[in-house]
Amino acid sequence: MGLAKPEEQDSSLIKLNMGLLLLNLKKEIDEAAYSVIDRVTFGHQVVKDRHTYSSELIRVLDELQLTADLIAEIEEPKQLTHKTHEQEELITYYSGIFLGLVHQIKDKLIRLVDFMAAEESQKRAYQEPKKVSPTD
Predict the structure, then answer these.
(1) Taking the CB of residue 67, how many other CB atoms lie within 10 A of it?
(2) Whole-prediction pTM value?
(3) 55-83, pLDDT tens digit by residue?
């Protein structure tokens, strides 16, 4: 069994992101009373974080593809107003960006997997905000 084609992987990630967006909206509608008091339940926060990290993963993958395309298009030195940047400098620059994006993907993916495994139904005790006395 081989790996999925990049188009299929993108499609699956986009489908996941859309599903998580719909779950987030459903939670928001179901728990509208909490938004009035500017609170979010633990379950809603988990769903919200899942959607956030899937969106971030899509963004980083797009940036990674853009950087790879820019590296592939480097053919000649680039002349700026006061300095010429050689091919090696440009490749080194874009490679650094590329590696930074790879680390972001790793981070976002690990966090997304962690949130996907989290239980939404976990109950947390409500804690009232501290009351401020006039003498403080």
Answers:
(1) 20
(2) 0.68
(3) 999 999 998 888 888 888 877 766 666 77
